[in-house]
Amino acid sequence: MIFQFVKTNILSKKLRNFLTIFSILVSVMLIISVENLTSQLKSNIVENAGTYDILVGAPGSSTQLVLSTMFYYDAPIANIPISYYESLQGDSRVVKVVPIGMGDNYNGYKIIGTSSEFFDEKYSLKEGELFTQTGEVVIGSTVARMTGLRIGDEFSGMHGLTEGGHTHGDFKYKVVGILNQTRTPSDTVIYTNIESLWEVHGLSHEEEEEHSEHEESMHGEDTENLITALLVKTTSLANQVMVTNDLSKNNDIQAINPAATLRQLLVTLNAGEIIVTLVAYVSIFLSVIVLFTTMLSASIERRKDISILRALGANRKTVFMTILLETLTIAIIGALLGFLLAHIAIGILGNITAVNYGINISGFAVQVSEIYVLIGAVILSVLAGTIPAVMVYKTDATRYLK
C-alpha cells in the first residue's frame, strides 16, 4: 500500500516533482562533471609530463613551450640552434635527447620531426614499421582513422601548423607505420625524422648549421632552423639540475622542468575547479531547499488524504515513512539521472578531445568522490523531507475529515 501511495503522489504532481528532480539532476551532474573531468585531465597531464626531465626551447612562456611540445597544443614560440642538439648528444650526463621539429601539417594534423628514440614503451605499432628513411612517416591512430591514410599511401605536407598554407607539392611523404591508440596527444600527429623537415624546406644538415645564427621568430613557423625543442632525459636528479643550469646560461634558449611547469598550470586549474565546485554545491543546497519546500507544500495539500489513510487504519509511523519514501524516491531519481547524464556528457566531450587533442577522457571512468556526491545528495534530500514528514506524523486523524 505504501509504495502505491508514493507512486500516486509522485505522478499526481508531475510538473512540480519534475522540477524538483531536475534541480537535483543539474546539481549532481555539475559536481560530478567538474570533479571527473579535472581528475582525468590532471592524470593525463601528469602522465605525459613524467617522461623527460628537461625541455629546451626558445625563450618565452614556459607553459606555451610545454603545451606546444608535449601536447602539440598552441603554436611553438620559435626554433632553436641545432648546436644544442649536437652538444647534448655528446653529454655523458644525458641518457637521451630527442629533437622536436614543427612547421608543417597535413589536413590540420601536425607533422612532427623527431628521431626513433622518441618511441619508448608507450608506443607500439598497429601496422608497418618505424621510419628509417627521409620522407617516411608514422601516423597516430586518430590521424589514420580521420584521414583514411594507410601503409604505402603518399601525401604532401602543407606549410604552417594549420590548414591554409601553401602545399609542398614537390616533396612526398610515405606512410610506413600506424601507431596503436595511445590515448595521448600522439594519436593526433604525424611523425617523421627531423631530416625530412629539413629536406622539405630545401635545407640540408649543413645548411641548418649555417642558418642557426640567423634565426628569426615567426611564431613557430620559422623554416630556417627546424629544431623547435629538445626533450632531454638525464642520468640522475643531480645531473638534471646541472644540465639545466648550464643550458640556462644561454640567452637564446630556455631550459625547464616540464613537470614543474605543469604543476603551476594545475594550480590554475585547481582555482577554477574550486570556483565551479563551489557553485555546484550551492546549487545542490538550493535543490535541497526546493525539495523541502515541495514536500512541505505537498504535505499541507494532502492533509485530508493523509487523514483518510489514518482513519482507514494507517498508523502514524506508516504515514511518516510514506512521506520519507516519497522524498527518497525523488532524490534517488534525480541523483541517478544526474550521474548518468554527467557521464554521457563526459563521454561526448572525451570523443571531441580525443579527436582534436589526443587527450584521453573516458565517460566510463568513475571517481570515488562521485559515490560520495550521490550519497550526500540523497541524504540531504531525505533530511529535507524529514520536517514535512514530522508534521504529517503529528496530524490529527479527525481534524480534516469534518
Fold blueprint:
Elements lengths: L1 H11 L1 H36 L4 E4 L4 H9 L12 H7 L4 E13 L2 E6 L10 E4 L7 E4 L1 H7 L6 E2 L2 E2 L13 E7 L10 E4 H7 L4 H7 L17 E6 L2 H12 L5 E3 L1 H44 L1 H9 L4 H42 L10 H26 L9
Parallel strand pairs: 3-9, 5-8
Antiparallel strand pairs: 1-10, 1-11, 2-3, 2-7, 2-10, 4-8, 5-9, 6-8
In words, what does this structure look like?
The chain has 402 residues and is of the alpha+beta class. It folds into two domains: 2-45 and 264-393, no CATH class; 54-256, no CATH class. The chain is 54% helix and 14% strand. Strands 1, 2, 3, 4, 5, 6, 7, 8, 9, 10 and 11 form an eleven-stranded mixed β-sheet that branches. Residues 207-224 have low confidence and may be disordered.
Question: pLDDT under 50 segments (min length 5)?
Answer: 207-224
Describe the sheet with the most strands: 11 strands, mixed
Q: Rg to the nearest angstrom?
A: 30 Å
What's the pLDDT, averaged over the residues?
A: 81
Shape: elongated
Percent helix, as a range, is 40-55%
Number of helices, where a helix is a run of at least 4 consecutive DSSP H or I residues? 12
Query: Helices and strands: which structural class?
Result: alpha+beta
- SSE arrangement, N to C: HHEHHEEEEHEEEEHHEHEHHHH
> What percentage of amino acids are in beta strands?
5-15%
Q: In angstroms, what separates the terminal alpha carbons?
A: 25 Å
Tally of separate domains: 2
Number of strands: 11
